[in-house]
Amino acid sequence: MQQGTHALELEPRLDTSAVARRHVLSRLLAWGLDDLVDPVLLLTSEVVTNAVLHSGTRLEVTVARDGVGVRVEVADGSSAPPVQRQHSTSASTGRGVQLLEAMADEWGWTATSTGKLVWFRVLTDNGWALDRELEGQAGL
Fold first, then answer.
1. Are 58 and 70 in contact (CB under 8 A)?
2. Other C-beta atoms lying within 10 Å of the C-beta of residue 26
């Protein structure tokens, strides 16, 4: 099993979230963490999309093997903190912080000299594999 930290710098473009997801997916598969693919890719997509929409600056996505799980960090050039927004149930945006609260084992953010760093951890022992197995048995 490979260990380590892998970073990717990205420009704020329409395909930035997709590129970030592919980067994180390749690391998860290399580390044999297939059971974390769904939650980690969803959270990566949310955090990167928020960085693109709200900072409009160059960003860096870092994924690291973290004990029994992974840690993903997204650094951007905005100092504005992540905020949970109140939207109608039909709104198509504004749920990033809610998803982090619901799906990440831990998450947070730190101000940096050039903006901020938003991070989250997802651990392998939180039942994701069991959820996916049950979905498969149910034909979902």
1. no
2. 12
Domain-wise residue ranges, the chain: 5-81+94-137
- Note the pLDDT tens digit of each residue in 55-95: 999 999 999 998 889 999 999 999 999 876 565 455 445 56
To the question of pTM greater than 0.85 for the whole model, the response is no
- The residue type found at 17 is S
> Are 47 and 96 contacting, i.e. CB atoms less than 8 angstroms apart?
yes
In the chain, alpha helices (H) = 16-30, 37-55, 96-103, 128-137
Which H or E run contains 60?
Answer: strand 59-66
Q: Any idea which fold 5-81+94-137 has?
A: Heat Shock Protein 90 (3.30.565)
